[in-house]
Design brief:
By secondary structure, this protein is an alpha/beta fold. The chain has helices at 13-16, 30-43, 57-67, 93-109, 122-139, 151-161, and strands at residues 2-8, 50-53, 74-76, 144-149, 180-186, 189-197. Helix 2 packs across helix 3 and helix 5 packs across helix 6. The radius of gyration is 16 Å and the shape is globular. The mean pLDDT is 96. It comes from Clostridium amylolyticum.
Length: 203
Amino acid sequence: MTTLYITRHGETEWNIQSRFQGWKNSPLTELGVKQAESLRKRMSTVPLNKIYASPTERAAKTAEIIRGDRDIEIIHDIDLREMGFGNWEGLTYDEIKSLNEAELNNLIYHPSKYIPDMGEDYKTFTARIIGAVDRIILNHPNESVLIVTHGISLKVMLSYFNSLDLDEIHNLPIVGQASLTQVNINKDEFQVILTGDTQHYDF
């Protein structure tokens, strides 16, 4: 059995400001660091063969905090990046709403209809994320791996594990920062054990 532990990066400055981050970055807040540290404590006794992380700074930093002083390799996989929002990156939710409310609505509620403004469409994005997950599973039979990624990236993973259609993605919540999702894979079958669990928060 292969076990995937999956988390989202800690809270960032742009999260607080409701800004779309995508491929751009903003630093972890003090709370974001504490969130990652609390997950480090929870994972400290969990055997891990490898850590895979989005190379975007907020995710890479979260991965480093969770690893702590353990001797575990971190592999930065570009395919684990967040969805690319193109010209929307750095803008607030309200600013995007004023520019193109219809497409913002499609992004959230009608993924198959979403047409990006110089960013990624859902077909391209989901193929990238699912491809990364499949590759990690293939490379780690009967091992345990931690994946550090992003909010919508994790939603796409959960839709894959739960066999949901593209337009059902919006039914899934964006899990909390540095929360824990666990998926066991046995003979190509997914068993979701935890989704966005935050019982380790100690602040």
